[in-house]
Every structure is written in C-alpha cells, then in structure tokens.
Amino acid sequence: MSNVIQIKVDELNSLQPAKIVENKNVEQKFIQIYNSVWGSDQGAQLYHKETFNFQKLLYDNPALAECTNISLYGCFLDMAVNGLSLDPTGKPHCYLIPRNSKSGRKDRNGKDIYEKRASVSVTGYGELVMRMRAGQIKYADNPVVVYEGDVFQPSLENGKKVITYRADPNRTSTKIVGAFIRIVRNDGSEDYQWMLKPDIERLKGFSERGNSYWDNNQKKRVAGDANALYTSNDGQIDPGFLENKMIKHAFDAYPKVRIGKYTQMETVEEIDPVIDYGIEDADAEVVDNGFDEPTNQPTPEPTVIVSESDIDEGF
Q1: At what angle do helices 24-38 and 69-82 cross, to 10 degrees?
Q2: Is 69 within 8 Å of 81 (Cβ atoms)?
C-alpha cells in the first residue's frame, strides 16, 4: 500500500509563510520527490538545507510573505523537482519572485481580483547546472564580455560557429559591445553563442513589457521600467548581469529541460506532467502574465492530497 500524505489546504493556509516548510507532510513530500526524481537518498539532507534558504529569503524579502501559501509551497517543492538551490551566495541557481496575478475571481463590478503569487526564476547559472545534469552539455566556459577596442569576429566556417577574439591589453573604453560563451558538448565538439547590442536591447524590451501595468488615466496597459541592471553601469548593462543573460541566450535553440510547475525560465522550457504536487487544479496557481493590482482578499483553495505513487513513474 502506498504511503498517502494528505495536506488540508485550510491547514496549509493557517501556517505562517516561513513555517510552511516546517510542516511534517511538506517535509516528507519534498524528500519523496527529490529521492524519486534524482534516484538519490540525499532528500532529507537537501530538505534541511533548502528550508534554511527558503526561510532566509522570506525574512529578507517581506513581499514574499504576502504571496499565497500554495504558491510558496509549490516553489519549495520545485527545489526538489529542479534539483537546484535557493542559496543566494556565489552564483545563485534561482530566486523566488513575488508577482500580482489574476486569482480567477471577479469583484462585484466584474473586475478581476488579483493576488500575490510566488514563482521560481532560474538564473543562467542554474540553467547550466540543469543542462549538464540532463546530459545536454559537458561544460561551458565563463561568459566573456566584449568591450569597444577588443578584436571580436564571430563567423561560420564549414557549418561550424567560430569566434576570433582578443582583448585589447591597452583598453581605454568601458563601452560594452556584446558577449559570447563557449559550450563543450558531451561528444567534445564546441558550440559558440554570442550576443550583440541589438540582442541586449531586445531583452531590455522584454523586461519593460514584463513590468507593464494598467494605467487608469490612459485606460490601457503601458510598458514599465526595465530591470535596473540594464542601465546601472553608467547607462549600459551591468557586466555580471550580461554574463547571466548570455548563458540563458546560449540555450535558446537547445532541447527543453524539465522544470517544476512554479518555475519560470527565459529559454525554452518543459513543465513535466508527471510530478503531482497534490494540488487539485494546480495549473490555476501558476503565475500568468495578468499581473496588475494587488489584492488582500483570500482565495478559496482546494484540498491538497499528496501520494507517494504520484511520483513513481517517468524517471
């Protein structure tokens, strides 16, 4: 007989956000998923590590504590599904992002009601970990930021991408003109990917649209401000931020990788249908692009039923 774990949603919602991960059933579910997905016995060890990271993030970012408990629960379980860490030091794998999202309900005037939901945003470094683990690549060099005055010539020779690069030893300009990265596939072959100024501007535009909002005066949705790191370096992109974006951009054409239901990636992703989080109609909790205005009104939640048999297949 399978070991069925039941988590009542009213019980989950009664917990303080930082205490969700201390719930015994949540602990058991995390360990079950991690050990099943990764064929490991390290689930318990990773659970304690990520519990500390999760609670520290909520303490450092009060906006996360305003998110629905089920979205926080889903984000925590995604650490087991993705095999990543919320440790913010060094080169972080991912972050928890709070956003206002349509709740699926309307007020008396027929207007959409919004609520805050958390989601996992995977960094370029986290994506490297996932793709190496999936066997898509052997490794990748650190991204190289190219400055004005450097020799930089990307080309295609006999169907293979080639880059000629030489840093200017007497560099006097701090103007960034692009970036590139070398990826080594499992068969030993090389793949070069690069970004130029138009690519950076395109990503900046995506950021502006992602931060769009409803303007009541104009009666329409308007573009918001792009991530401050696009202009924080004397009006140009921050070099470290560009390195992270370079890694993500490099995998645009690579095969999909499995991610959890509450995880977002900027490159192509695949939400694995096998993992059951024990939340009926869980897809309704995935953050959509309809975020606008916050709301403090609670949303009725379904019962959460977690079963060991939910994760036995497909890995």
Answers
A1: 30
A2: no
Tens of pLDDT along 1-55? 456 667 778 888 899 999 999 999 999 999 999 999 998 899 999 999 999 999 9
Alpha carbons 37 and 279: distance in angstroms, whole number: 19
pLDDT tens readout for residues 173-183: 999 999 999 99
The rounded percent of the chain whose pLDDT value lies above 90 is: 56
Q: Identify the three-state secondary structure at position 69.
A: helix
Q: Residue 4: enclosing H or E segment and its boundaries?
A: strand 4-7
Adjacent-strand bridge partners of 181: 193
Pick left, alpha or beta for residue 10 (phi over 0 → left; psi -120 to 50 → alpha; otherwise beta): alpha
Helix, strand or coil, per DSSP, at residue 165: strand
Which of these, 82, 61, 78, 175, lies nearest to 130 by C-alpha position? 82
Structure-token match 């395109």, residue found: 202
pTM (two decimals): 0.73
3-state secondary structure of 161: strand
- What are φ and ψ of residue 113, in 5° steps? -100, 130
Does 80 have pLDDT greater than 90?
Answer: yes
Residue type for position 109: N
Q: How many Cα atoms occupy the beta-carbon half-sphere of 151 within 13 Å?
A: 8
Distance CA 61, CA 108 (A): 32
Q: Which residues of 6-33 are buried (b: 16+ CB within 10 A; e: fewer)?
A: ebebeebbebebbebbeeebbbbbbbbb
Q: Tell how strand 94-106 and strand 4-7 pair up.
A: unpaired
Alpha-carbon distance values, 277 to 135, 191, 216, 273 (Å): 26, 37, 38, 10
pLDDT in tens, 220-272: 887 788 889 999 999 999 999 999 999 989 998 888 888 888 887 755 344 44
